Amino acid sequence: MKLLLQLSLLTLGLTLALGQIVPRSSWCPVPLSPRLPRLAAPVRLIIIHHTATRQCFNPQQCQQALKNIRADHLRRRFRDIGYNFLIGGDGRIYEGLGFGIRGEHAPNYNSRSIGIAFIGNFQVGLPPAQMMQAARTLISIAVQRRQVVPKYSLIGHCQTKATACPGIHLLNELRKMSGYRRI
Ligand SMILES: [Zn+2]
Q1: Count of domains in the chain?
Q2: Residue 23 placed within a domain
Q3: What are the pLDDT digits (tens) for 47-77?
């Protein structure tokens, strides 16, 4: 009985974690600079990326991946990690810059979009169903919080410039989602 209770509490905790945004402080000891440019909300565009890195399958791996991605972006002279949010292979939504901050992910589109990156390389691999579900959850949170208009356009990075990002397999999944636009 006790075990059953513990198990159900564990499942509940996992379900809650999967439906929420994991705060930046969980993976990054450095807080966001107050000088980062702001993003005027709500925006109309949601731009999906992949990180073209290895996939991560648990919170430890995903948090390490986030650190590596931020370090890479800082080496490339970005102000911080370039994405607003990232989706882990563990099905969690990780806060990057978060809402209200202008990202550095899609030149010419940064001031009117939110950038969401799927951790992994989806030119070669298929995105797991739980990552797609996490993205849908994040988008509904963004609409609820009026960070994105209800009639948003969901596009892949490759629709803004010549790039393989977010990978053909992820693009195929995006095409099935509501709000997907061909531009
Ligand atoms: Zn991209």
Answers
A1: 1
A2: no
A3: 999 999 999 999 999 999 999 999 999 999 9
22: in domain: no
Pairing of strands 85-87, 93-95: antiparallel
- 31 found inside a domain: no
Domain extent at residue 92: 40-174
| Nearest C-alpha neighbor of 50 from the set 139, 169, 183 | 169
Cα(145) to ligand 1 centroid in Å equals: 24
Query: Strands 21-22 and 113-118: what pairing?
Result: unpaired
Distance CA 69, CA 16 (A): 26
> Rounded to the nearest whole angstrom, what is the distance from the C-alpha of residue 177 to the centroid of ligand 1?
18
pLDDT in tens, 41-50: 999 999 999 9
